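Backbone-to-sequence.
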């Protein structure tokens, strides 16, 4: 068998070798990309595992307000309906019981409707076993001209198992002021 050594045949052979080399290189590149992707996924999984071990899953309690009581010039204990539950902190009749010691991020929002000027005040009370006391630094207030308004208290507290928390709302009002269930929300997140 004789080998065609014409320039055209040589060109075909060169193109075929180049094509084979390109396919091989492409396969190597794809394999390298797949290896890099697998290594990246393994590194991400290791980082997620380390984070999960360092920070336990967040425990969240979320509640909506249930009262439509008047708070005009009277402090009212807020009450709640649970929409997202955790065993770390529970509630009954407006009192939150801390079941797991930790640092908690708390957000309490109270919404109201009034017919005149009002200063809304939201206060935090803590009972550590020796009676309930207001926490002077854990208070929020806001001025509302009329109609609907609200106030939000955001804080972080170190709490111990057995601690009892409650929140009271008051309106220093020139007229009527009543709680709204819509927008009255409590969220507690155990951070550690």
């Amino acid at each position: 068998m004789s080998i065609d050594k014409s320039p055209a045949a040589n060109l075909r052979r060169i193109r075929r070798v180049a094509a084979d080399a390109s396919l091989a290189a492409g396969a190597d590149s794809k394999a390298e990309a797949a290896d890099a992707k697998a290594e990246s996924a393994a590194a991400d999984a290791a980082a997620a595992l380390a984070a999960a071990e360092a920070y336990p899953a967040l425990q969240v309690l979320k509640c909506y307000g249930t009262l439509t009581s008047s708070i005009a010039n009277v402090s009212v204990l807020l009450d709640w309906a649970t929409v997202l539950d955790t065993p770390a902190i529970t509630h009954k009749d407006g009192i939150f019981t801390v079941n797991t010691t930790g640092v908690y991020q708390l957000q309490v929002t109270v919404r109201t409707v009034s017919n005149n000027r009002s200063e809304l005040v939201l206060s935090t009370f803590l009972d550590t076993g020796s009676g309930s006391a207001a926490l002077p630094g854990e208070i929020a207030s806001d001025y509302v001209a009329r109609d609907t308004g609200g106030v939000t208290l955001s804080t972080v507290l170190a709490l111990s198992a057995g601690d009892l928390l409650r929140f009271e709302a008051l309106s220093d009002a020139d007229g009527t002021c009543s709680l709204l269930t819509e927008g009255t929300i409590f969220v507690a997140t155990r951070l550690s």
